[in-house]
Amino acid sequence: MSSATGSRVVVTGATGNVGTSVVRLLSEEAGVGSVLGLARRVPEWSPAKTEWAAVDLAAEPADLVGLFSGADAVIHLAWAFQPTHDPVTTWRTNVLGSLRVFEAVAAAGVPVLVHASSVGAYSPGPKDRAVDESWPTHGWPDAAYCREKAYLERSLDVFERDHPGVRVVRMRPAFLFKRAAASEQRRIFGGKYLPGPLARPDLLPFLPDIPGLRMQALHTDDAANAYRLAVRTEDARGPYNLAAEPPVDARMLGELVGTPRRVKLPRSAVRTAIAAAWGLRLLPASPHLFDAVLRLPLMDCTRARAELGWRPERTAEEVLEEFLKGFQQGAGAATEPLRGRKVG
User: Fold this and answer.
1) Measured in whole angstroms, how far is the alpha carbon of residue 126 from the centre of its chain?
2) Is the pTM of the predicted complex or chain greater than 0.90?
3) Whether 119 contacts 87, CB under 8 Å
4) How far apart, in whole angstroms, are the C-alpha atoms of residue 281 and residue 152?
5) pLDDT, tens digit, 9 for 90 and up, residues 54-83
């Protein structure tokens, strides 16, 4: 890291759920001299030591090499979840855009690349025990999100082989939530037709209990802290699992939303309903992603604790409680992706 004026860090996808938390933490970091946030739309939000540039990673003319020149690290977060009905469009941004970022990092001589992978990159795995970073990362091939995350894992394998002088870190977080991202995530996964009463989970007559519905969550700020630590920890490289305890299941969700009654439903029935709503374009979240969630393994985060000194400050219950309150209140933030909106 630069010692005279502090390091210069470039963050792609800087105005989204993870990007806003990463930019804020970096702007408060004494060892960081400046932050360059890249986003398709420059926000009014202006944290200390932060500059902005409008960049669409799906557009080839973007001068990423020039933007990365002189940077001590690039944190690559940019990702498009929609449209799920057009995987070619998400492929252009998520895969081809990421490959442009990787190539520009090498061309600009940036010594550190921190890439946002995901639990979604993992192959199907156990729900009764946690796996470490050696678990295969072939994703769930039917879900575009998982397929793209897994493809980039293979791309980084080649990148690391060809560019041994670049320290590459791959973050594999669980599902990320914070209050300010509630409206964005409602739009991404629930859509504009999500019925208003669902903003009041306490009104649900029962909570579906689906076999395999056991996953992990993490507060976005806790994930951002891991990114910050990865930049400043000079020997950190390779993959790191990131998740809070305990795992999320129907029992926990029922307690959080005040719906003690749980009704066991077969996967097929729930998937059929999701597929119908997705096919009619009433629901943006695809049934393929639902299939993947039921198969994702639980992650062991020992490596992040031991090598980065990372600890999540919030439990999974606290994370979801904050998110649900933000969901009910239409919470958001001063960037285009996180704009707030009431439901119903």
Assistant:
1) 21
2) yes
3) no
4) 28
5) 999 988 767 999 999 999 999 999 999 988
